[in-house]
Amino acid sequence: MEKFMFNSKLLLNFKLISNYKMTLRTNMLFLCCLAFMIALGSCKKSSTTNASENTTMKTYDPHSYALPSEAVMTHLNWTADIDFEKKIIQGVARISIHASEDAKKIMLDTKGLEIDKVTVGLDESPTEFSLAPAQEPLGSALEVEIQPGTKIINIYYKTSPGAEALQWLSPVQTAGGKHPFLFTQSQAILARSWIPLQDSPGIRFTYEATVTVPASLLALMSAENPQKKNSDGVYNFTMKQPIPAYLMALAVGDLEFEPIGPRTGVYAEPEVIEKAAYEFAEVDKMLEAAEALYGAYQWERYDLLVLPPSFPFGGMENPRLTFATPTILAGDRSLTSLVAHELAHSWSGNLVTNATWNDFWLNEGFTVYFENRIMEEVFGPSYSEMLASLAMQDLKSEVEEMKKGGNAADTRLKLDLKGRNPDDGVTSIAYDKGYFFLRTLEEKVGRERFDRFLAGYFKANAFKTMTTEDFIDYTNDSLFTKNNIPIDSTLYEQWIYGEGLPAQLPMVSSARFEQVDSVMGLWQAGKPAKSLNTTNWSTHEWLHFIRQLPDQMNVQKMRELDEAFGFTLSGNTEILTAWFTKAIRNKYTPTYKALEDFLVEVGRRKFLVPLYGEMIKTDAGRKMALTIYKKARPNYHFVAVNTLDDMLSYNP
């Protein structure tokens, strides 16, 4: 999803110097270094980090109150009690910091938190703090007074029952129906609603945690995880690799674990675990293909957690534990490209992270490219080209919609989201325009060179952040100049800074979709739907077929297709969404009950937005949309509600 300047190359680490024996030569080196540091005295606030701390915030972040040039967090020790009855987390955040010599404060991000007290140091000395008035969408700045030499601040707090990152589910909202469930969604700037921290993708930190939950439940985090419940409900976690705040994640529920491979496995409710393990059986192959392409997986394990259906996204790339929607459990492994996408984030996003949400395409464009390459390796080019063709359809459609809606500026890859919610950048632009830009680079230099470039990119920038401008510099040096290829600056202007799509796009051709088009032609020419040859069609072929149907069809034509192919009763959520969109447009009422049931149960924003969006195009449809939404809204996560309240002009 969805950033002050300093040059870390100028930093010197005196700890390294202290490890040397003070020979004459090293004494001279020390004096030279000391003189150099004195010469830099007027630039104290240019940076405070060193190479070991991985907190390399590159530029001003308009979505965080943090001032890392003064003081920056490097490690979080989090203790929390999970209270399902009150729907709050009672916590202590012990934050290790690195501060400049003259720093008098550290600035943190919070939203809706009740701060009970703040202390500093291991001896818990009292200190002054202030919580500024809240501003949307950023929340409240927490300013903590520090002294020279302060290394740790301790924040005692509790969340609000309406914390935006947290979704508390009653037993009836789970598959088992017996136990409550809690999950978090921190991206883009919601981590601050359950932990006080520096909530910027440009600031990385390690963490450890102790979490207490009801003894009947299992707690999991984006960290080293248990694989079974214990008797006391107390769980300890460690994340050794530095991550940004948006990758903080917690889930608590009646969960079981099933291994898939030596490094992979799946967590789910007992009622879902067998189905999930079957669906994700090819994850090991995907992991091996990813490593063969772009280098070793650096997070040790790759596990998945299947959440209840209210989860607002298809997946969330929390390190070591991808959160996944149950809507991909189609029973035929046909929707596992989403798993390839979240796995690819282990390199693009988690390993090399967009410095600000204005650079979001650096996370998602790379990931879609990587995802398609994984799918090509595992399932072949004919399969991956179907994915690319659907992406091109989505991209062209969204660009046109954004232009019509007066949002042409948001069709640029490099965004300007200052003063806005960074979720506004979660569109096909970052994902698919980013992907096709990288595919254009591949076509320009050849796949072999491009693969070497990407492998080098992930290795050279591991556990660091990247701005769009730094990426351009890196590409010019490591791709074009290194290979003696002329640099075409117009390429960046057209793809990154230009609105809409360039005139010349990558060639996308799917032979399997061409066969679907032939079948569509036969039906439009009068051949009955039941006699059409659709044997062994994948989800993607069915999606292409439904998308190519005429916008306007009579009830008889809709019923013919529905009776022949069972669209309304499909268990595939992608197919259902495509079909429901056509049904709403053509007032095909036999689908309306299934449509309502779907919208009440499923909270994935990818499906909700187009369906509600189609309904509100007519007066009758708007009335139906509001009736359904009033019933469904309590089941949705804040991320979905925030989007839909605005779309539907709904004021609860």
Task: Please tell me about this protein's structure.
- It is a single chain.
- With 652 residues, this protein is α+β, with helices and mostly antiparallel strands.
- It folds into 4 domains: 8-46; 66-160 and 198-244, Immunoglobulin-like, CATH 2.60.40.1730; 352-495, Orthogonal Bundle (Neutral Protease, domain 2); 513-648, Serine Threonine Protein Phosphatase 5, Tetratricopeptide repeat.
- 36% of the residues lie in helices and 18% in strands.
- It has helices spanning 14-18, 24-39, 273-279, 283-294, 337-344, 361-379, 381-404, 428-445, 447-460, 468-481, 489-495, 511-524, 539-547, 555-565, 573-585, 592-601, 605-615, 619-632, 638-648; strands at 71-83, 88-99, 105-110, 114-120, 125-126, 129-131, 140-145, 152-158, 166-169, 181-184, 204-212, 218-221, 234-244, 250-253, 256-259, 264-268, 302-306, 315-316, 321-324, 352-354, 464-466.
- The strands form 5 sheets. The chain has a 7-stranded mixed beta sheet, with no helix packed on it.
- A hairpin with a 4-residue loop joins strand 18 (315-316) and strand 19 (321-324).
- Helix 5 packs across helix 6 and helix 6 packs across helix 8 (428-445).
- The protein is globular and about 80 Å long.
- Residues 1-56 have low confidence and may be disordered.
